[in-house]
Amino acid sequence: MVSFLPAVFCVWRVSRGGRISRMALIAASGWCYVSAVLAVARTWDLLIVALAIICAAQIALLVSPAVYGRTRRAPIQVRAGGWAELVRRPPSWLLPCGLVLGVVVTLAYLGSMGMVAVPGCRGADPP
After folding, report:
1. pLDDT in tens, 82-117
2. Greatest extent of the chain over all pairs of C-alpha atoms, in Å
3. Which of 36, 98, 119, 127 is 20 to 30 A (C-alpha) from 90?
């Protein structure tokens, strides 16, 4: 309830054109998304994956042209693009950076793993 009330206030402010509230919501959603993704890297849980998807959708809504135009003093006229603009080729840096970031996160969590004895398992008897 403590974080719910400020979030509701910020959403209300964004609906009225608050730029600072929009930035605060983007930062909070980004923090929530990063926390959820790192939690998924530790333990695979369907609820954490759902939380990551919800945070990503919230960020996508907050950076959409409609909300961006709403929080500007003079609304920017946004032209609706056709399929050619929606289906673009991603930037050339996206794939290598995504791969590098995935490897870094994986190695970071593999580096914190320790050797743990499995209960009921023992070494082979010598001949």
Report:
1. 555 556 677 888 888 889 998 888 887 776 666 666
2. 84
3. 36
Q: Produce one character per residue of 47-71: b if its CB has 16 or more CB atoms within 10 Å, e if not.
A: ebeebbeebbebbeebeeeebeebb
Distance CA 3, CA 6 (A): 6
Q: Which residues contact 24 (CB under 8 A, 6 or more apart)?
A: 10
User: Tokens at residue 98, please?
Assistant: 């995504």
Low-confidence residues of the chain, pLDDT below 50? none
Give the orientation angle of helix 94-110 with respect to helix 19-42, to 10 degrees: 50
* Rounded Cα distance, 125 and 127, in Å: 6
Say which amino acid occupies 28. A
